[in-house]
Amino acid sequence: MPYMNVTEVESALIGLGAAHPTICELITLPHTTVEGRVTHAVRLGVAAANTVDAYYLSGGVHAREWGSCEILVNLATDLCDAYAGGTGVGYGGKYFSAAEVKALMERINVIIFPCVNPDGRNYSQTTAALWRKNRNPANSGGVASKIGVDINRNQDFLWDFNAAFAPAAINTYVASSDPGQDTYHGNTPHSEVETKNINHIFDTYTRIRWYVDVHSYSEDILYVWGNDEVQVADTTRNFQNPAFNHQRGLIGDDYDEYIPGSDLSNLIALSEAFTRTLGEVRGKYYVAKPSFSLYPTSGTNQDYAYSRHFTNPGLSKALSFTVEWGTEFQPAWAEMQEIIKDVSSGLMGLGLEAIGIDSFIVTNRDTFSKDGVDSIADYEEAFYVIYDGFSPTELGLPAAEPTIRFLSSIGGSLISTMTAIKTSVVLENAGAPATPQRILFTYRVHFNGTSAFTAEKRDIFVEAAFGGITDVALMHLVNQPSPYMLDGPVTWLSTDVRVFQLRPGQKVHGSSSITLQDPNAVADAPYNYIQALLAELRGYGNADAPAFESLSTNELELSRTVGGVRVLNFALAKVRYRANSQDAVDVRAFFRTFNTMVSDLSYTSAVGAQMENYRRTSGGTTPLLGINHFFSGVGNQIVSIPYFAERRVNTASQSMTAQPDNTNKQTLVHAGGVEAHTYFGCWLDFNQTEPQFPVNVPSGSDGPFTNRIPILQLVRGIHQCLVAEIRFQPGAADPISNGATPSSSDRLAQRNLAILESDNPGIESTHRVQHTFLLRPSLSARGAQLKAVASTSNQQARYDELVFRWNDLPRETVANLYLPEWKADDVIALAESLRPGPRIITKVDTNTVLFTVGDVAYIPIPGEIRDAIPGLLTLQLPLTVRDGQRYSVDVQHHTGLTFWADVRGENKRTKVNLSRRRVLGAFEVRVVVGSGEPLLRKLVRNLAVLRYVFQAIPVTDTWHPVFVRYLSQFGDQIAGLGVAPSLIPASPDDPGLPGEVHPEEPEQLTGKVREVIFDCFGDFKGFVLESCSDCHHIRSQEKGIAEVVLRACREGCTVTVCLSEHGLHKLIVRC
Fold it and tell me: Poorest-confidence range of 205-214, 575-584, 996-1005?
């Protein structure tokens, strides 16, 4: 008979320990069976017992389930032999690399107890094949059929089922007090030596974190609980609470068993890792589901193992499972051999998932257009390849790296014109190369020609192969003549979108002839300016306009005035086009600001979506307010606001759908395949005080609005994110796909930058900088908090993550995140349970986590978070920073699923790790170290305008607690610089330093010089300025003024004079 008998099982374990003494410890269990047998287990691994976490596997609990012993002995042998030989392990179509075997054997202990019930197994193999129980005759009364106890009903978990369960739920599957039944639970909990041996391992090896009890049959993997349905909300509904006795075990009633949400998510992820890797062997798929869905049970090994840490919090938590292999108890040996491969692979996969072994690709740019490639051949940080749970040493770093190929399909032909160049390797703990951590490779994509663009839209795959692990991700090549914008090296700071600020009388650049009029004198000055500037830029044709190209990365101004002078903000976009014969007619550009730094800029055109960032009129001609429908207050929160080059409609009496902006509608004329371009722009009037929109927008309304406030009071941070969208849809389908982002679509471009100021040298509070941000988990994050239902999916739910790349920020910096809508305990528990790596996150308070600064930090977003929620990022810089230093931090939001895909390629059928993980959004935090009065003035101005914003935030708004902390920290920074923050008023204008005497704002007159006045001695006495409404006699005796006004009079120049109580204060001449 191919199945091993009891003696052969024990001999195999003893032999394995002798063959591999350094990695296989033979455990002799202390309790001898009633028939006098001594049983053994083995502890595999390099680390000493109780110095690392442990993965505990038991089998042979039920006598008739012969194959369980074979599975576990086989797995123990494979692990020892492969590790000793430095090889991987293969099971049919699934191969585990040497690095993965090494990780299991060095990272944890694997404890295997294959033959729990040797007396029963012997009886089943020699006398009664379907015998289930052990062979204890103590309660049989001498009746042969009543011998034995069910070892999987003997544990101290709701053992007294008659008291614990509802009468209607009780049947022989739950358990039985009748020794004649197969599920007889014994006369007391833990009465059986076999049960005591199982528990001896739990008690001796105190760091067991994962437990699997191997059974047959039904082709399932079951996870806790087995007594009732599960829920994550009510902690009082639990197995220890006697108030719920006589209620458990029924479907759909008022009782269901509590389990922490993070534990449930991990149980599901681990069980699905088992089903995925099992399925790769030969296509056999098991079902992952809660044990209760099979039938209610009491006293099982699985439930007892998990319950231990509830009854005694000092014990290790063991996430626990039951595997039910096969479709019969004793299949033919040929089939059993295949089942051994299946289940061994599944158990390996579960173990690797448990210790965080993982790999996947994250795309930052997943779409490339031929037009874009014609303009630029290299795309920085197009994608990342991540290996999780490995140490750099295990992967052979720094010399080793993945092999990257671009393929026509999975397993298909090579695309030779595309290559990937590794640009960096980012480690969580670069100083500990032997420590398991997340390893991130960044890649630039290079195109050597455009021959790969063979269709209007072509799907291709990027493949990363490393150490026997292969990952792929989908990318798209687009060959459609279409307007586009280029991002440049950093996707969140597009080179084709520029912003700048001007004061009256200023020009954007010396090459420009357009001067900003004074908006105090000319109401349409900003619109006049942007329209004239666009006309000037467009006059360059397809040549680059110096005024645009020379614009640096500029910071906008949130205050309406600085030093008593109006400051206006503007934005420009350069839109490009390539076509041989077709013009792009009526191309529009929409400009929107998001009210702070935003982690999700994904596109959707679906009306009524949860977050509509890019709303527009049905005809697509006018952008509208972006709306957050998740907001729990009255109405809908505004998340984005559109801007125009023409005067806004009066939203008190008109709908936004009537907004004109023909200035931003252009035809791009083809240039015979050479790149053509033109310019679009707008006035960013977010720092103005005229009422425009309500705090909360009534559902379905685009105006007219009541209860309007200025755009300035809808802002939620000193800096906002700007996105430009090219609106051009010649066909029925929206050319921007749902889910596209500014990094993946060349029709969207962004500037998402926050510039924060720190003092030097100063005290601690003056080195603390902060900015708000808006966080919205994607659907995949909420999917990670999966329902406890049966699943055969090959989809792996992943939590969304915030990824912080610290770049050159001093490593002594401490960062914290405050989000009133999340719980710090949940974030920390999730980070520790999901993956290995440095434990960098600690709790500050209920809603704040603190984390240390290294090269990178990964912060998981709990799946319970559904709404878009505001937060505050704070950086506490060390006192060693110095004036003039600049630092940058890149923040990305990663989202998406990965799949184990069974795909037929061009040459073979294969299984791959297919990733849909991507960068949902990104922004940059730039820290500038300053000192002295200029820094203080700016901070005072910022606090004043933020207090003005705060006046309009309702107490019930989710932004309210964030702003309370935001303003408090700003106040602390200013107090540290010697100014009492209580002296700073809420104001949209720069209030200046407290106690400073401010002259009244000068009177300004604009017109042309009609007369220049000299007395009889030829001395200059002034001039007459003619405005549209009157003539004004301006007195002055300055010789320099005389020369200027004489020239202005001769040449007909427009002149603006600024008058103070002392006379002529300033003269501005425009020629």
Answer: 996-1005
The pLDDT value recorded for residue 275 is 94
CB atoms within 10 A of CB 1000: 8
Copy the structure tokens of residue 446. Answer: 């290079």
Question: Does the pLDDT of residue 123 top 60, yes or no?
Answer: yes
What are the angstrom distances between the C-alpha of 771 and each of 229, 541, 856, 870, 921? 43, 40, 19, 11, 17
Calpha distance 875→852 (Å, rounded): 10
Structure tokens at 944: 């004043």
Residue 48 lies in a domain: yes
Percent of the chain with pLDDT over 70: 94
**Nearest to 264, CA basis, from 788, 779, 832, 823:** 788
Mean pLDDT, rounded, of the chain: 91
* Domain hosting residue 603, numbered range: 497-751
Give the span between the Cα atoms of 298 and 173, in whole angstroms: 9
Asked if 978 and 1011 sit in the same domain, the reply is no
C-alpha 969/C-alpha 972 separation (Å) is: 5
CATH number, domain of 138, equals 3.40.630.10
Give one word for 812, left, alpha or beta, with left for phi > 0 and alpha for psi -120 to 50.
alpha
d(CA 521, CA 1070): 15
How much of the chain is helix, strand and coil, in % rounded to 5? 25, 30, 45
Quick one: pLDDT band at residue 553, thresholds 50, 70, 90? low
User: Phi first, then psi: what are they for 574, rounded to 5°?
Assistant: -105, 120
853 confidence band (pLDDT: 50, 70, 90): very high
**Stretch 491-503: mean pLDDT:** 92
Of 917, 948, 983, which residue sits at a domain end?
A: 983
Question: Do 211 and 305 have their domain in common?
Answer: yes
pLDDT category of residue 996 using cuts at 50, 70 and 90: confident
What is the tally of structural domains in the chain? Answer: 5
In-domain check, residue 484: no
Residues 462 and 528 in one domain: no
Which strands form 24-28's sheet, in the order they lie side by side? 24-28, 40-44, 109-113, 54-59, 208-216, 319-325, 220-223, 287-290
User: What residues are paired with 1057 via a beta bridge?
Assistant: 1005, 1067
Same domain, residue pair 969 and 1039 = no
Q: Helices then strands (H, E): number in the chain?
A: 17, 54
Same domain, 55 and 129: yes
- Helix 6-19 and helix 67-85, axial crossing angle in degrees, nearest 10: 10
Q: Using an 8 Å Cβ cutoff, are 373 and 458 in contact?
A: no
Q: Does residue 195 register a pLDDT over 60?
A: yes
Q: Which pLDDT value is given to residue 688?
A: 97
- DSSP code per residue over 477-536: EE-----B----S-TTB-TTEEEEEE-TT--SSTT-------TTT-TTHHHHHHHHHHHH
What integer pLDDT is reported at residue 672 of this predicted model? 84
Q: Where is the domain boundary, 423, 448, 478?
A: 478
Query: Is 896 inside any structural domain?
Result: yes
Question: Whole-angstrom Cα distance, residue 166 to residue 233?
Answer: 22
User: Does the pLDDT of residue 523 top 90, yes or no?
Assistant: yes
User: How far is the CA of 964 from the CAs of 530, 637, 882, in angstroms?
Assistant: 37, 19, 29
Same domain, 298 and 333: yes
The reply to whether 720 and 764 lie within a common domain is no
Structure tokens at 689: 């005080």
- The DSSP bridge partners found for residue 872 are 772, 818
Structure tokens that stand for 745 in this block: 């679509």
Confidence label for 785 from pLDDT (cuts 50, 70 and 90): very low
Task: Say if 615 falls within a structural domain.
Answer: yes
- Same structural domain for residues 1007 and 1065? yes
